[in-house]
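Notebook, bench 3.
Goal today: get a predicted structure for Lipoprotein from Patulibacter medicamentivorans so we can plan the truncation constructs. The sequence was checked against the plasmid map this morning, with no discrepancies at the termini. Length recorded as 161 residues. Pasting the sequence as submitted so the record is complete.
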Amino acid sequence: MRLATVVVLLLALLAVPTLSACGNDEKASKTEIVTRLGLAAGATKHWIVDPAREGGFKKGADKRKRTIAKAVLAGGFTLRMLQKAKEEANQDPKLKKLLPSIAGATAAITALRGVIGGGDEGAISKLIGGGNPLDGLLSAARGQGLDVKEEVPSAAKLVGG
């Protein structure tokens, strides 16, 4: 099966929302947003940033196609986590301050995901720069008193949501 077909099939699976929305309880909302931001940051670092630094997207790299497919999945997963975090932040007046940072992280991941599929190592490295594209968002969340820790989701979780 061609890589493009596999990626399209996997992306179709990712389009199905599987995460439940949390209630209006402020504590539950904060717990959910902390979890989602931690998973988003962990997925981005483990499945995109680290492989880029290790040369996993270079032409001729061992298991390059698999690395690209996992990175595309991680990008989709991260975008879903950011969308859910945005919804939760919109419901909590204290967390609304995170909306600009969530929007910036979403734009960065969208751009990154767009170049990953093509495997352009130079473009990927340029967009990653010196670190995780979610670092600014994590810093803003910590500034709001949220104790966000990166959590690496399994490959199965990338597909299942």
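The mean pLDDT is 84. The CA atoms of residues 17 and 161 lie 7 Å apart.
Flagging this for group meeting.
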